[in-house]
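Technical note accompanying the year-one report. For the benefit of new consortium partners, we illustrate the data format agreed upon in the data management plan: each record pairs a sequence with a structure-token string. No post-processing was applied to the example shown here.
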Amino acid sequence: MDKAVIELLARRAGLDRALRQFPEDVAAAAEAAEGSAARMQPPSDPRAEPWPPMRAGGAAGGAGR
């Protein structure tokens, strides 16, 4: 990732202080995030929910008792 892009993203994220004090760490975090994003696969059906919808009551753990 280009240094200018890293700086721009860090500033937009409000990480000015971290960028000044720890520029190598900010760059490493940006590279790690870029790698993680590249490994993510988009869902085959964008309308499909990743998990069942949440419902109130009747669940284990004390809800509805």
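Partners are asked to follow this layout when depositing records. The radius of gyration is 20 Å.
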